[in-house]
Sequence to fold (165 residues):
Amino acid sequence: MSNYESHAQREFRAAGWLNEDGTFKDDMQKLICEHVLELLAVFDGAGHSGFSAPYAINLFGKLAKFEPVAPLTGEDWEWNEMGPDAYQNNRCSHVFKQADRFGGQPYDINAVIFEDPNGSRFTGFHSMRVIQFPYAPRSVVVKVAEDATDEQREILAAQAWAAAA
Fold:
């Protein structure tokens, strides 16, 4: 058993996913863990060093989440037409441009993520922010009161986005 597999098995147990006899309590969790063990076996077999391992993990993580590894350029090839004068970026699914929104300027619908007092996170109309290319997608988290008005959310979102620039 590799160090990766040993570590994973200990963590599966610590997470409460295993019965006393080492079998999984839930079939879906078992399936996911088996897939993760397969990925770890491939990673272990690649022989990464302390230098290359974090780089490979970061690159794999971005690609597995369909995130770009280099800034968006806004070039024509990056856009998929979604309808009349409406486009979605094919490298970053939360970046759009529409003729009738923000004067046709590109925008990120996940630029601002709101967090309420109980820790729940959500996006909405006020999450959208106009972007400029080159653009490395990012999000800022804004804590809001549960009863925050639309006007308050917009002010907080604008301030946080500007401060993060």
